[in-house]
Amino acid sequence: MTVPRLYTTQTLVAEAVVDPGTGPAHYLVSVLRLGPGAEVVLFNGRDGEWRGRLVEATRKRATVRLDARTRAPAAEPGPHLVFAPIKKARLDFLVEKAVELGAARLTPVLTRHGVVDKVKTERLAATMTEAAEQCERLTVPQLDAPVRLAALLGAWPADTPLYAAIARDQNVAPWSRVVAEIAAGGTPPALLVGPEGGFSAEEVTLLNAHAAVRPVALGPRILRAETAALTLLAQWQAVAGSAANSDRSGP
């Protein structure tokens, strides 16, 4: 059986007895049916990854005594994904895969043609945490509160490029070429994907007028919103992310 791996906000140090919370306790005891002595792996985004064993195991409370650190703390820089929310199941899929593909920050942006006006950030945060646990990241990405596109652009620094998948024009640079050019700089990019219905004419005007916006093309086909977002992330990951620079740190 695979050793369960859970995120906690608690400080992780050698020989500490950690209470990861009610939710993890329910998962460990009621779902996995684990008891005292069972191995557990914990991480918190600050202290690396630690292996320990269950000491107390009830449906409402579980404690873990930490034995040893298995991975040292390490920064996990990645792209900032700005995306228009889509319907529930596909949104959960998008967020889960964005975490797996190394996004470091996610910002839901509200647009005129968006099909979702209210975003349940608590649910998205839970999805992101579960994805980080599963894919063995050391950190959980930052999740911002939803923001209107005009407000986002109004606060966006002119010297921070925002690569926007807003065109299929042959005169617009393909993302595959752009990502190869910017990868050498080492700074993960900010990426923008619009809603299923596309940006409105007014929004396209705002985007084209902003000094930071860099339109990029993803090919001749019309892609679903989640496909476009994951294409941007996957190509960055392949060229400049952890997939291209694998370095799994030990204790």
TrEMBL record:
Reactions catalysed = uridine(1498) in 16S rRNA + S-adenosyl-L-methionine = N(3)-methyluridine(1498) in 16S rRNA + S-adenosyl-L-homocysteine + H(+)
Q: Which domain of life is it from?
A: Bacteria
Q: What is its main location?
A: cytoplasm
Under Enzyme Commission nomenclature, its number is 2.1.1.193
Q: In this protein, which residues make up the domain named Ribosomal RNA small subunit methyltransferase E methyltransferase? A: 80-236
* Gene Ontology terms for molecular function: rRNA (uridine-N3-)-methyltransferase activity
- Which biological processes are named by the entry's GO terms? rRNA base methylation
- Annotated localization: Cytoplasm
Please state every residue range assigned to the domain named Ribosomal RNA small subunit methyltransferase E PUA-like: 25-66
An example of a Gene Ontology cellular component annotation for this protein is: cytoplasm
Enumerate the UniProt keywords alphabetically.
Cytoplasm, Methyltransferase, rRNA processing, S-adenosyl-L-methionine, Transferase
Q: Where is the signal peptide?
A: none
**Function of the protein:** Specifically methylates the N3 position of the uracil ring of uridine 1498 (m3U1498) in 16S rRNA. Acts on the fully assembled 30S ribosomal subunit.
Q: What family does the entry list?
A: Belongs to the RNA methyltransferase RsmE family.
Q: What is this protein called?
A: Ribosomal RNA small subunit methyltransferase E
Q: Which organism is it from?
A: Rhodothalassium salexigens DSM 2132
Taxonomy of origin reads:
Bacteria, Pseudomonadati, Pseudomonadota, Alphaproteobacteria, Rhodothalassiales
